[in-house]
Every structure is written in structure tokens, then in C-alpha cells.
Amino acid sequence: MTSERKPRLCIIAKGENGYGFHLHGEKGKSGQYIRKVEIGSPAEESGLRAGDRVVAVNGVNVEKETHHQVVQRIKAVEIETRLLVVDQETHECLRNLRLTATEEMAILGVKKTPSAPSSPSPSSSSTPSSPSKKRENGSVSKQPVQKPTRRSPSKAAKKSVRKSSAVRGVVDGGERHVL
Description:
The protein is an alpha+beta fold. It has helices at residues 42-46, 67-76, 88-96, 153-164, and strands spanning 8-13, 21-26, 32-37, 53-57, 60-61, 80-86, 107-108, 132-134, 140-142, 167-171, 174-178.
């Protein structure tokens, strides 16, 4: 199996706003999937990708578990979670070989980041064109500038409440959780 077709182990430290990913399960179908990974989130930094299928949570295989059970396993550990995930191609390859993904097969799912520049960082008197954030490894990432919304204040407030909610509920015949 090539490294592109290996399970990935994503170790995600919980941030101020949670882990930064949306978990989705289809009614009547087995498996839980990563629907969305928030930009700049701990989930993105760990290498988690939208479309990944969750195989195990904190060392326990969850392929046959319900959405609720998977969410409870993720929430069971307060400060971090370990997700063993596969992309669609890896899932099909393992299934054809009648293999189950394990942490022993996995590669660490760390997102590749550009290396830090060898020259000293610019002085504080220089003004960046957009906000930036310094990472632990010393590299700097530009943060996207949030565009203003055209929603009425009441709609914006409703969206804010909905976004802060941990449970999305049943949507389009499936279940979603923002974690």
C-alpha cells in the first residue's frame, strides 16, 4: 500500500472553539464522515480533511457504531482526541483486501506547512497586508479577512446561536455535529 493509501492518525488538541470539524452520518448507512474542517482549526492542523471516513476514535473502532456513540467517544476525552481516518480510495482499497484499518498501519496525519524562512522576521514597524498568525513552528499564516454579511441583525444573531451549538441535529436524512 502506498503512503497515499494509508490510514491517517489525526491527533487533535481541543481549541477555544472545539476541535474545528463537522461530523456527519447518513441515516441507514454505516460510517461517520468529516463533512467540513474549519480553516485554521486544530483539526486542520492535524491533517484532517473533508470527506475522510472515521475508522476509530481514541483507539476504538467505530465503523459499526451510531453517530451518537461516535460523538460520545470524541467527547469522552476533554483535551484531545485521536481520529483514525481514511479517504474514499483508501477505504475501498482496504475493503477489497478485506482489511480493517488500524493505528499500526497509519501515518501521522500532520498537515504539511511551509518551512519557516531562514531570514529574520520583519520588524514590528512593517505593516502586513492582511492579518497573520504565527504558528508554533515559527512559520506565519495569513488569516482570511472576514467579509461583512448582508443579513439582518436578527438573522445574524440566529446564525451565531446555531453556530455555537454543539449539536446540529438531523439534517437531510443524516446527523451532524460540530466538534
